[in-house]
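Q: What would this chain look like folded?
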Amino acid sequence: PWGHLIRVRPQEAIGACIWRVGVYDICVSECLWRLMDPGEVAVDVGANIGHMTSVMAWRAGQHDKHSSIAPLPAVFEDLSLNISRWQNLMNAPEIELHNLAVSDRIGLALLHVPQAFRANRGIASLLDLSAQESSSETHSVNVTTLDALIPGTEKIGVLKIDVEGYELAVLRGSVELLSSRRARDIIFEDHGMPPTPVMELLREYGYV
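A: My prediction, written as structure tokens:
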């Protein structure tokens, strides 16, 4: 609806939704749009094919950069193609792409891809899903922390985190970012009933 071309796979959940109505997860999309101000920086952890990155980039307009992060090569290929299309638009911000995962440490980790991934390409996780999904496959991926990825002076308007249950580890690797309150607003997915460990950690750093 805002003019960004995006390649989707209509046979899977995220692509089917965008194919039908042009927007995925309208509640989150609307929230990101309302929180972002023109000229701000955004970080998208768990960007998938880039829909939420697109929302924030269009809303913010031209600025130094946005960061879009996705670890799985097959999904990262689609993300890269989509973002390359938007970079040619007038007033488009620079979007930095990172083909890695975010955690509370730096190194290598196993990304678990359940069989249901074919129907929903947004459910790969660094959490071990073997207890729920016996036929999952794994990929070795590079991991880093947000504190290592984001310069110490960088201020972020909106930090969006959607990593299928691994959000707590992402935030544990963001101590400097959180303690300095350099991320004004944080949008995250949470799989538990409140108050969850993620919510409690954010409250410790003054986020309510």
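Residues 161 and 167 are 7 Å apart (CA to CA).
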